[in-house]
Amino acid sequence: MDSKFAPLQGKVPVSFRRLMALKKIGDDVFESLTAAWPPAPFQRAFGGHVYAQAMYAASRTVEEGLVVHQMTGHFNLPGTIDVPFVYRVRRLRDGGIYCLRSVDVYQQSNAAAQASSPCFTATLSFKRSEKGNRKWRDFEHQNVSKDHIRKEYACALEGLGPEDHPLAPGADSRWWEEQEAERWNETAPAFPGVDMRKVNMQLHNGSVERGGGKDGQGASRWRALHFYRLIQDEEDTSAGDIDLNLHAAAHAYASDRNSLFLLQGALGYEDVPTTMASLSHTVVFHGLAEYLCMVDGKGSSKWFVQEAWTTHSGDNRGCHNSRLWDYASGRVIATTIQDGMLRFPSHL
Fold first, then answer.
1. Confidence band (pLDDT; 50, 70, 90) for 274?
2. Residue 168: which of 193, 192, 142, 198 has the closest Cα?
3. Which CATH number applies to 16-130+145-343: 1.10.3210.10, 2.40.160.210, 3.40.710.10, 3.30.70.420?
4. What is the pLDDT of residues 59-92, one digit of tens each?
5. Alpha carbons 308 and 48: distance in angstroms, whole number
6. For the packed helices 244-255 and 47-59, what is the interaxial angle rounded to 10 degrees?
7. Where are the alpha helices (H) located in the chain, listed in sequence order?
């Protein structure tokens, strides 16, 4: 791969491997090689890009067999798409089963303006599989049934396959679709890395009054479903080994797509121009690391689905919660929680 920084172009999405590609520029220091995707007609980077790439950069500093199982990241400054990200990894602890890393992420543009403050910071924990060890026990549970998605959202799924749902929009908001989508669609590159499909949840969600409805019950019932799968290239399909940390990063990347727009809809402000930004995002992966694998035995990309809702909002903030499911097996592979800033016009 060319070592020069490559902007995203055209309507053919690049693979996740290419999107996450890194160049080592120092001891535990890495630089991005492919630009982030812009989720609006601006030059700001999709936050899921820096989140996922920080995870992948940290994984480059751990021993073979260690796979990420938890990450919490804080978004400090907006990123741009025309400057490479620089990932500085710190080795906080190396143990036999667990190890801990932190990552500080910089861009030249905002680092200079903010006295070298990182635009993103994160802590991550990696784990080695204990399967087969003397103290290992085969136990596993989840608090929802394996057919929960198919049964709970039957009215929205309507017997359609994941690929039958439309591609997720640039920003999942009615006001954005009405005011920005046409201009953005003319110039925006295809969403890279993962194929994401939005389920029409209107029959399930119904309508809600502004402010979330009486006692917030309208907001509480609001749900979003997004199917997603890995976009691969020839290098992926020809490689014999699966990089589970790269696949974990793809799950984390998908989990941040259009996340805070759910809160806007749940609170009844879909048609109102809104200022929003991620403050922090936590992903916890469950069970064996092999569950994170995004391809089947033949190397084809598998479908996963994110089920999302909100639990709380107030004081210009809201909480986005989700479960990531292996759609075929009905297994929950991850839980996420995101704290976001929301600001609606004061005259409403």
1. confident
2. 198
3. 2.40.160.210
4. 999 999 999 999 999 999 999 999 999 999 999 9
5. 16
6. 160
7. 16-19, 47-59, 108-113, 148-152, 154-157, 174-179, 181-187, 202-205, 217-221, 234-238, 244-255, 261-266
